[in-house]
Design a protein that fits this description.
Length: about 120
């Protein structure tokens, strides 16, 4: 139990360390992606006003037919869906926040799909 608390403490420190450097504005919002064991969540956040501009998750009604979970293929599909929704909201540039996770696997697949679909970061 002690090692689990230690892991969570270290992850929280990584999140804080990243958040000190990554700040979203109205022109360039912060793209925060987080993963649970079952789902993927992504949102574009304007930190200056403290508002979420757009959000997409693997539980969205638009994406129900695609049977998304928290795997790499779903991360790619959700990245493309996020980029399309961002384009609809006139967002072309974002700052990427990996939420304390290493940049590989699902995080990398999501980021590459967003880049391929046309968002810059």
């Amino acid at each position: 139990m002690k090692s689990l608390k230690h892991k969570l403490t270290l992850r929280q420190k990584r999140i804080w360390r990243i958040r000190k450097k990554v700040v979203g504005t109205a022109e360039r919002p912060r793209l925060c992606v987080s993963f649970t064991n079952k789902h993927i969540y992504a949102q574009a956040i304007d930190d200056a006003s403290g508002k979420t501009l757009i959000s997409v998750s693997s539980m969205n009604k638009d994406l129900k037919g695609e049977n998304l979970s928290a795997n790499r293929d779903s991360a790619t599909k959700l990245g493309k869906a996020f980029a399309e929704k961002a384009k609809g909201a006139d967002i072309t540039k974002v700052v990427f926040d990996r939420h304390g996770r290493p940049y590989h696997g699902r995080v990398k697949d999501f980021a590459e799909a967003v880049r391929e679909a046309g968002l810059e970061f």
